Amino acid sequence: MKRLTLFILFLLIDFQSFAFWGFYAHKKINQTAVFSLPLEMLGFYKENIAFITENAVNPDKRRYAVKGEAEKHYLDADVFGDSAVYKLPRYWDDAIAKFGEDSLRKYGIAPWNVYFVKTQLTKAFQEKNVASILRLSADLGHYLGDINVPLHTTENYNGQLTGQDGIHGFWESRIPELIAEDFDLFVGQAEYIPNTQLAAWEAIIQSHHAVDSVLQFEKELSQKFRQDKKYSFEERGNINTKVYSKAFTNEYNLMLSGQVERQMKKSIKMVADFWFTCWVDAGQPDLTLFTKQKIQPELSADTTKVDSKLKIRNHEY
Hints:
mainly alpha, globular, 56% helix
């Protein structure tokens, strides 16, 4: 009991350092998406870019504190059978009617959740609620980033079914951390999306198609690297942590032909497109009226506490 208490205390005190290196890509995606917005939106979003960037990681923090949050980040599509990404109902009510809500939540609701948050952000624009616009913009950016990660679309989310434990964090965290500064992340101007629900499903389909290469290439490369070359140790939060080596990471990225970069660019484009679409659907409110409004302090910092009784899967580590 004493050991469990100390572990929980560690999570409460040092959560940021425990998980920070999985946050890099989400922050980068939200930050970069701002610069694809039209002039009518750009001033407002640039003024609040620090908030939107820093709070891009709040949904991941809530996974450890809020019941019902974890399933918003993924979809175990293969649980539903062959070609499920094509066959699953696109709309929530249809999906519930076919599978039941408990089953859906058990295996993830990522694409449906994207639409839920999209409608909430549209409503926030309509109501001219600055705090909600910023909070939901940051959240929506996170969820869109998640559906563009291949391992967020499979039951084998961390390679645990194929003896490749740790591949999730390797793909979505280690590669961006080491290489993303060299990525070309320019995606052009934001565009209106006629059907955001179908757009979310198209992202799921493309991500799921990449699962095989994500797993196969890592397995092939692992056969060429000795364990002492595949991994190295780096200091993280005053802890000497085992990580994938730079040599292994660079070689894997080459085998994937820049897949991580492509998925990050898709995420950035989708985030900008969704923000723009929400604004248009809300009637294109004048965002200059919102500038210089002070954000409530409690919205600029995530104060969620880890719930030790909440059992969720740690797919990143």
